[in-house]
């Protein structure tokens, strides 16, 4: 057991899988000798060799095409997209190829590719280093989408993603790489070391995909969140003094409907939180699911707290970011009605 | 001397236009065709920069009399040549039958490869059976040259109960892991970088198998072409990158794809990839060039780009009418002839062939295709079924069916 940041936990997951499985390779821009712009692959090339961990040309579409071909051969590629914002050129290979290969070949060819991509805001990255494009991929049949919120989960979920036989989009909340973040940008940065989930076991452990975690039990309202927003939601519930039950979804597809159903049936209220833009966001799907599965248990309308439907603005980062104050307002609204 | 620039000349946009359109006589006289045997054959270790002429020339082996001439003659034995002829004739007979089946309403769509049979057949024969192929929709000859059962292919075209792809794919989008034939995609070009990835994986694992990929000249404009060449060059991937230049991307002639001022083979030179331009209707030239490229890949010398210079004699597909955009019957006038006729002429000129043997082979091929047709149609056709159970629609989306698909399957009542 060691205390780790999320970056170190992700590194440990890849290290573990490169060691255990000779078919795992790690590829991406700057991931080799240098160890990645966020240091997630630091030391992996030195330890596992240049043909297992290597730099690629700057072409996300090319990286994905190569990864799909490698997976068809029988490897388990872990491809890093330097920022989730850069993923769009790779969409044809992701959506039309990786996600559908098993289906269209009658199960003969598969694409067990893990795509790691730092996502989300809070780092003054402007519109090309802050986006949360998860809903583009949750819409794709054949693809799984995973987002961790702690170092412990990051390692266990990444190992599960690499071992999974289907393509997995693994979005990493980059604002959480080096410490939990409650959404108060003007307060001092807290290191992971002070958080219990920074205790990361050595060796292999996998957190099953499709299972949410209850990060706070409560009876008044259910908050559905993932990634950075899990921590922001915790802070909001604390500060608004609302007895919220907070579910960290961890996997968006397939989503843990049983956990959602059980919690909302208990509380009768639901607030959905994500950083991504609102229209057509994953919150819309969650809202529809809650309505379909829990309609007769709902006391008040479902609330969504999300990023605005604008590009991510550099100077107005904190007006854009759905921080604890906005979540607290939503909590008060559902509690007052 | 630079061209004179008139003062304040108005700019004008050049939009490429093929030399002939419907109503005019087809005229291929502008085509520069070097004589057979005239193109040199460099050592397989030659760097791209020292063989740039090969990207602008044309590797040809069969001369007008059907003799194999020059340094690229692969020296194939008569049995191999007859096997090639049989496969090409089978491809053509298969195409005819499936086109007819489409017209009879037994399936929705079909694509022939008339005039391009030598490419897939000779290339499949020039690589090892265990090498991995990443085709487009016009390389059915790869499967046929690998003796993949015709009935199995037909079942795919009919989407019937025997379709290994369970009715999920459009006709001709075959896939067979056992045949080393990668699942065909309708998104053009995606297979090109995948083939390079497969080849890189083979090299990472210290395997001995190589990969080969095909793309049409039209789809070289896709980004995947550039990504594939970049990765293949950077990592010296053991892959053969084929560009089938059949001059037509549905209705757009090769000039729209950038073929007016350079060759498609020349695209490889900028990446430092040795590149050959080959007469795609010359079975021997295609075979020899492919063997040359395969030898390079197996010797860790990296990728080779091959432009197969040919002509799409038939329509793009059953949904296309080439009479709307090019002169009628253009393919019959292609100066490089018909690949099947040319190989047959070669066998005759070599003294190993006769009218009687030709007739016997034609009969054998017709019977094979007919028998396969009956076998496949007994398992169903698209107009009448039977099909796989509709519940299979929900399978293979994921390895294990997640709750939401299970729920949707129940809602669908299957």
UniProtKB/TrEMBL annotation, chain A:
PANTHER family: 2-OXOISOVALERATE DEHYDROGENASE SUBUNIT BETA, MITOCHONDRIAL, 2-OXOISOVALERATE DEHYDROGENASE SUBUNIT BETA-RELATED. It comes from Azospirillum picis. The lineage of its organism: Bacteria, Pseudomonadati, Pseudomonadota, Alphaproteobacteria, Rhodospirillales. Residues 4-179 form the Transketolase-like pyrimidine-binding domain. InterPro entries: THDP-binding, Transketo_C/PFOR_II, Transketolase-like_Pyr-bd, Transketolase_C. Keywords: Oxidoreductase. Pfam families: Transket_pyr, Transketolase_C. Its cofactor is thiamine diphosphate. Its EC number is 1.2.4.4. One of its GO terms (molecular function) is branched-chain 2-oxo acid dehydrogenase activity. This is 3-methyl-2-oxobutanoate dehydrogenase (2-methylpropanoyl-transferring).
UniProtKB/TrEMBL annotation, chain B:
The branched-chain alpha-keto dehydrogenase complex catalyzes the overall conversion of alpha-keto acids to acyl-CoA and CO(2). It contains multiple copies of three enzymatic components: branched-chain alpha-keto acid decarboxylase (E1), lipoamide acyltransferase (E2) and lipoamide dehydrogenase (E3). Its EC number is 1.2.4.4. Residues 10-47 form the 2-oxoisovalerate dehydrogenase E1 alpha subunit N-terminal domain. This is 2-oxoisovalerate dehydrogenase subunit alpha. Residues 86-380 form the Dehydrogenase E1 component domain. Its cofactor is thiamine diphosphate. It catalyses: N(6)-[(R)-lipoyl]-L-lysyl-[protein] + 3-methyl-2-oxobutanoate + H(+) = N(6)-[(R)-S(8)-2-methylpropanoyldihydrolipoyl]-L-lysyl-[protein] + CO2.
């Amino acid at each position: 057991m060691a205390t780790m940041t999320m970056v170190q936990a992700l590194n440990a997951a890849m290290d573990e899988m490169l060691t255990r499985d000779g078919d795992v390779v790690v590829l991406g821009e700057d991931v080799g000798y240098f160890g990645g712009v966020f240091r997630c692959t630091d030391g992996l090339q030195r330890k596992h060799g240049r043909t297992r961990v290597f730099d690629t040309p700057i072409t996300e579409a090319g990286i994905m095409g190569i990864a799909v071909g490698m997976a068809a051969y029988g490897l388990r590629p872990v491809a890093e997209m330097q920022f989730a914002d850069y993923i769009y050129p790779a969409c044809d290979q992701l959506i039309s190829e990786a996600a559908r290969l098993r289906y269209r070949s009658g199960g003969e060819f598969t694409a067990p590719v893990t795509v790691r991509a730092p996502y989300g805001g809070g780092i003054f990255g402007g519109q090309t280093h802050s986006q949360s494009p998860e809903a583009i991929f949750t819409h794709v049949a054949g693809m799984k989408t995973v987002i961790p919120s702690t170092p412990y989960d990051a390692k266990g979920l990444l190992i599960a993603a690499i071992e999974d036989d289907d393509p997995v989009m693994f979005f990493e909340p980059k604002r959480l790489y080096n410490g939990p973040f409650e959404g108060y940008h003007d307060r001092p940065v807290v290191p992971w070391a002070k958080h219990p989930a920074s205790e990361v076991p050595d060796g292999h452990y996998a957190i099953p995909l499709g299972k949410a975690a209850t990060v706070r039990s409560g009876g008044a309202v259910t908050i559905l969140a993932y990634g950075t927003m899990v921590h922001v939601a915790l802070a909001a519930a604390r500060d608004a003094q609302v007895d919220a039950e907070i579910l960290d979804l961890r996997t968006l597809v397939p989503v843990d409907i049983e956990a959602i159903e059980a919690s909302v049936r208990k509380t009768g209220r639901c607030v959905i939180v994500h950083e991504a833009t609102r229209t057509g966001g994953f919150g819309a799907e969650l809202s529809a699911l809650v309505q379909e599965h829990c309609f007769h248990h709902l006391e008040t309308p479902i609330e969504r707290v999300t990023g605005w439907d604008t590009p991510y603005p550099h100077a107005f980062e904190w007006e854009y970011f759905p921080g604890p104050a906005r979540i607290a307002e939503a909590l008060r609204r559902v509690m007052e009605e | 001397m630079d061209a004179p620039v008139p003062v304040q000349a108005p700019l004008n946009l050049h939009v490429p236009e093929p030399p002939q359109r419907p109503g005019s006589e087809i005229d291929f006289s502008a085509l520069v065709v070097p004589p057979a045997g005239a193109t040199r054959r460099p050592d397989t270790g030659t760097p791209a920069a020292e063989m740039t002429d090969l990207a602008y020339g044309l590797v040809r082996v069969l001369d007008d009399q059907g003799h194999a001439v020059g340094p690229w003659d692969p020296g194939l034995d008569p049995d191999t040549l007859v096997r090639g002829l049989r496969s090409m004739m089978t491809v053509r007979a298969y195409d005819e039958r499936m086109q007819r089946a489409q017209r009879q309403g037994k399936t929705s769509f079909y694509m022939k490869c008339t005039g391009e049979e030598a490419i897939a057949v000779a290339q499949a024969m020039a690589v090892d059976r265990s090498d991995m192929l990443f085709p487009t929709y016009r390389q059915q000859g790869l499967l046929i040259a690998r003796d993949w059962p015709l009935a199995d292919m037909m079942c795919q075209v009919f989407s019937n109960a025997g379709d290994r792809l369970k009715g999920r794919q459009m006709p001709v989008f075959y896939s067979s892991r056992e045949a080393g034939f990668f699942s065909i995609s309708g998104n053009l070009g995606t297979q090109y970088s995948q083939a390079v990835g497969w080849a890189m994986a083979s090299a990472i694992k210290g395997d001995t198998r190589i990969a080969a990929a095909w793309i049409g000249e039209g789809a070289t404009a896709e980004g995947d072409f550039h990504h594939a060449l970049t990765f293949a060059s950077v990592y010296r991937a053991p892959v053969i990158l084929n560009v089938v230049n059949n001059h037509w991307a549905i209705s757009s002639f090769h000039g729209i794809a950038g073929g007016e001022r350079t060759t498609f083979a020349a695209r490889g030179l900028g990446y430092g990839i040795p590149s050959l331009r080959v007469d795609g209707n010359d079975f021997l030239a295609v075979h020899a060039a492919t063997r040359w490229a395969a030898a390079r890949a197996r010797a860790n010398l990296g990728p080779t780009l091959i432009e197969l210079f040919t002509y799409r004699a038939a329509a793009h597909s059953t949904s296309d009418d080439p009479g709307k955009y090019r002169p009628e019957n253009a393919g019959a006038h292609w100066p490089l002839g018909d690949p099947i006729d040319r190989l047959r002429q070669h066998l005759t000129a070599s003294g190993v062939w006769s009218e009687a043997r030709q007739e016997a082979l034609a009969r054998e091929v017709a019977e094979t295709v007919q028998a396969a047709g009956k076998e496949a149609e007994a398992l169903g056709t698209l107009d009448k079924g039977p099909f796989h159970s509709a519940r299979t629609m929900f399978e293979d989306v994921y390895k294990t069916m997640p709750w939401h698909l299970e729920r949707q399957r129940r809602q669908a009542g299957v």
